[in-house]
Amino acid sequence: MTTIDTVAAPPLGGPSLPQERRLVTSIPGPRSQELLARKSAAVAAGVGHTAPIEAVAAGGGVIVDADGNSLIDLGSGIAVTTVGNAHPKVVAAVQAQVAQFTHTCFMISPYDSYVSVAEALNRITPGDHEKKSALFNSGAEAVENAIKIARKFTKKQAVVAFDHGYHGRTNLTMALTAKAMPYKSGFGPFAGEIYRAPLSYPFRDGLSGADAAKKAISVIEKQVGADNLAAVIIEPIQGEGGFIVPADGFLPALVEWCRQNGVVFIADEIQTGFARTGAMFASELFGIVPDLITTAKGIAGGLPLAAVTGRAEIMDASHAGGLGGTYGGNPVACAAAVASIDVFEHEGLIERAQQVGAILTGRLTALQAEDPRLGDVRGHGAMIAAEFVNAQTGEPDAALTAAVAKSCIAEGVIVLTCGTYGNVIRFLPPLSIPDALLHEGLDVVAAALASA
Ligand SMILES: *Cc1c(COP(=O)(O)O)cnc(C)c1O
Fold it and tell me: Please, is 182 exposed, middle or buried when counting C-beta atoms within 10 Å of its C-beta (0-12, 13-18, 19+)?
């Protein structure tokens, strides 16, 4: 573990809510229960929820519910509110834009903020080659468009995704996503020409990066063939799949193979992007320069926005009118993104993510030393996972994981689970969380594990 001097969290985020865990009712309290009853009557059953609360305010490191409980937020709405919830600069930019105009459709009447977001993405994404960007509404939509662009450019069709990969819930992205339950079961048929290769998963495969890459490339060459392959898409660190960090050398070998074989390498940085991993983009941690990169989640401080950014010659392969959408690059979301990117670049958030990572890793590895059920602690920056196993067999322990997560939420700490085997708790705090609150959240996790 790298030692980093503890520095106070930057003065970031939201309404000036007291930065404390405060439980004034059991979770859920009566008002939250009322909303949840209305939810189950009015909202489709397929739309689940993790924390049974009615959120009414959020900022710094807390989410406040309708009953007056203040919960520690270790999830950032799935790595979205990285700059902090309702960051003052984001709020000001959104308020100014929403009073000016809310929509023209960029494909009808272009505006500055869309172009400014594209310019910023072209500048801050890895590589100093000429780049272009296109904006969309959601991560899944960005992934769909990256695949469209790669197919158009290469005039090939096949796409390779990886074991444990997650790329979204639309039809093409369900095909790319690995896990059947809950993402795919019953929702087929899925898009064609999608193939799956084995990932480097050091905790479970024990392979070096080079050997894992050899194995993946062999599957790709034998089962797909470079002549048919338009793109390889991979999360540099897997998100939903369990924060799996590939062994050193795995990603560079894949990029190299793609270069030699006329295959577009797409890094899906929707979860890992924007300072989350202690680098602006996780690709930098592995020394790779993707041809295309998809972004969303952290990009706009909570407003819906997504992008594909990449080599200009690839991005320009599509005829005019082939890319876009009614809302893609909405001016309010773009104003929020311009403000958020300014915060990422100028408020020390990369360093803050490294500090948060050092706290998380330090606390969790100390816990692991005392408890063999905590099989693996991994990740980078403010994207750290704890994988829970049966202490005797090393088998994934989803029941233990669910029990720990449930009791954390009951005690006022929002944690998210993930992993193909459902046995990972992922820590994705907003970077505006004060250190003391992060420590308190981890105290609650430790107590939940001890009593599980
Ligand atoms: C969340 C996520 C997506 C899908 O993004 P949505 O905005 O939910 O459509 C795609 N890829 C990765 C890596 C993600 O984490």
Answer: exposed
Ligand 1 atom showing the smallest separation from residue 235 Cα:
13
Question: Which residue has the CA at smallest separation from atom 11 of ligand 1?
Answer: 167
Those residues whose C-beta lies under 8 Å from the C-beta of residue 434, and which sit 6 or more positions away, are 8, 9, 19, 60, 61
Of 62, 99, 173, give the one whose Cα is nearest residue 438. 62
Cut 0.70: pTM above it: yes
Q: By alpha-carbon position, which residue is closest to atom 7 of ligand 1?
A: 139
Q: What is the pLDDT of residues 171-183, one digit of tens each?
A: 999 999 999 999 9
Q: With a 6 A CB cut-off, is 352 part of the ligand 1 pocket?
A: no
CA 286 to chain CA centroid, Å, is 17
Over range 100-114, report the average pLDDT. 98
Q: Which sequence spans correspond to the domains of the chain? A: 14-86+349-451, 89-346
Contacts of 218 (CB under 8 A, 6+ apart): none
pLDDT attached to residue 14 = 55
CATH code given to domain 89-346: 3.40.640.10
Tell me the average pLDDT across 103-127.
98
For residue 315, which amino acid is it?
M
